[in-house]
Structures are given as structure tokens and as C-alpha cells.
Amino acid sequence: MFEIGGGILSLIWFLIVIWAVLKTAQSSTSLVAKLLWIIILLALPVVGLIAWLLLGPGKSRV
Known about the structure:
Layout: H1 2-26, H2 31-43, H3 45-55
Helix pairs in contact: 1-2, 2-3
């Protein structure tokens, strides 16, 4: 049972990272910024997603 739950959580996490990559690719930021965020999201999925949520392209710097 634990393996099934872990697989579902992994799939959900994967879908969220893919969603973040797509949102980044569609953003109005520069190409370099988009590429850097996509590389970070794919190379470091957990840390990258948290950083993207907090600092990602299009976030206002208040």
C-alpha cells in the first residue's frame, strides 16, 4: 500500500513540476531567465519548485 501512495505522490509532484516549466515557458520574461528557471526546475525538482513558487518569473519583488 505504501508503494502505491508513494507512486501517486511522485506522479503529482512530477505533474506540478511540469506545470511550473510550462508556466515559465509562457511567461513574459527574457529567454535567459526562462531557460535558467527551467534548468533549475528540472535539475532540482524539490528545491527548484519551492524557489520558483517564491521567486519565479513574473513575481513582484516587493
